[in-house]
Amino acid sequence: MSEQTYTFTSESVSEGHPDKVCDYIADSILDACLEQDPNSHVACEVLCKDNHVVLAGEITTNATFDYEQVARRAIREIGYTDPAEKFNADSVKVLMLISKQSGEINAGVVKATDDQKEQGAGDQGIMFGYAAAESDELMPLPIVLAHRLTHGLADDRRSGSFNWLRPDAKSQVSVVYEGNTPVRVSSILVSTQHADSINQAAIREYVEKVLAPRVLGKWFSADAEVIVNPSGSFVHGGPSADCGVTGRKIIVDSYGGAGRHGGGAFSGKDPSKVDRSGAYYCRYVARRIVQAGLAKRAEVQVSYAIGRAKPMSIKVDTFGTGDEAKAEKFVYDNFDFRPANIIKELELLQPLYRKTTNYGHFGKAGLPWEKPVPVAV
Asked: Would you state the pLDDT for residue 290?
């Protein structure tokens, strides 16, 4: 194989995956806080196992609501309602381990140590944003296609068209590239939880004849290898089978491994936490670089110190697909990475975070960092 031809693989998980259940509960609690108090500071962690849900973290808010009912509603929306399962919306036991945000952290967020008129970063850290002109979404194609498969499973489950589908699922798509250009899908992997009444041959026929052709469109080919439930039966799934924890699907949430990740999870964090808002802004800026025709691939890195408003560093990489010096000048001239500006420019104090939890935080229409705003260079 020449060095110009390679295969890249990304995975996705469904909203019923145990870790995503936790992410969705955490973001539901965040939105409940922001609906009443846009200045809420939220760092919510969730663990789910068997019939237990643990809510933990630090939340400072003037909002008043029933945390337990928010968690149950989120579980019900995902689809865990079967009373025969240990994990279901009505019978789970919810344990609350939530305190207020540290006063020392709050002081640095409210008034930055390097500029008392500014808001400081809620933590130190590095964040990345990535964009590539290989799909309409300006996202890496493997993660786009993997998300389409898991989203399609959820759509078919909810419609009742295939009533044997259950909430927990995973997908994986391998794409062959020539240089920076995707040319074909070489393999498709789908593992889906199902009712005991369906056999594996029928599940495979559904994936191969219905799901994959519909959601992958022109990228589906009869030449692609299709693998379905490779371990065999997948009746027992979700938190009834496996422990879920917030923030364990950060590569699924971002670029499927094609772009770097700074390590900080997104879900359950209000936008004062730059792990989330900084990553969203980096994606916003990377998209602008590609949209402006300055590069076919762009990655933006920013770093912060806790309590400081001004970033420690900003770096742009175009991977040899554009004029890096021009792209970097474009970024410095047009974008303000201070936390308060990010929150204002992207309108991040809205209760929009439940929309981000599943099928990727990037590449989905309707999110502020994905808006198609033209930029003049």
From this structure: 96
Q: Is the pTM of this model over 0.85?
A: yes
pLDDT digits (tens, 9 = 90+) for 354-376: 999 999 999 999 999 998 766 55
Picking from 296, 314, 294, the residue whose alpha carbon sits closest to that of residue 304 is 314
Residue 301 half-sphere exposure toward CB, CA atoms < 13 A: 14
Q: Which two tokens stand for residue 346?
A: 């992207």
Q: Which residues contact 330 (CB under 8 A, 6 or more apart)?
A: 288, 289, 292, 294, 377
Contact by Cβ (8 Å): 274, 338: no
- Backbone conformation region of residue 257, classed left if phi is above 0, alpha if psi is from -120 to 50, else beta: left
CA 191 – CA 172 distance, rounded (Å): 9
Instruction: For residue 188, give every residue at least 6 positions away whose Cβ sits within 8 Å of its Cβ, in sequence order, or none.
Output: 149, 171, 172, 173, 174, 207, 212, 216, 220, 224, 225, 226, 227
Phi-psi region of 207 (alpha: psi -120 to 50; beta: other; left: phi over 0): alpha
Taking a C-beta distance cutoff of 8 angstroms, is the pair 150, 141 a contact? no
β-pair type (181-194, 165-178):
antiparallel
CA 112 to each of CA 40, 182, 223: distance values in angstroms, whole numbers, following the listed order:
18, 45, 57
Helix (H, G, I), strand (E, B) or coil at 187: strand
Instruction: Let me know: does 38 contact 349? Beta carbons within 8 Å.
Output: yes
Residue 288: closest CA among 345, 352, 340, 338: 345
For 346, list phi and psi in degrees, rounded to 5: -100, 0
Query: Which of these, 283, 255, 267, lies nearest to 146 by C-alpha position?
Result: 255
Beta bridge partners of 45: 56
What gap in Å lies between CA 77 and CA 66, rounded to an integer? Answer: 17
Distance separating alpha carbons of residues 232 and 200, to the nearest angstrom: 7
Instruction: Write the DSSP assignment of 307-322 as a string of letters.
Output: T-SS-SEEEEE-TTSS
pLDDT digits (tens, 9 = 90+) for 207-242: 999 999 999 999 999 899 999 999 999 999 999 999
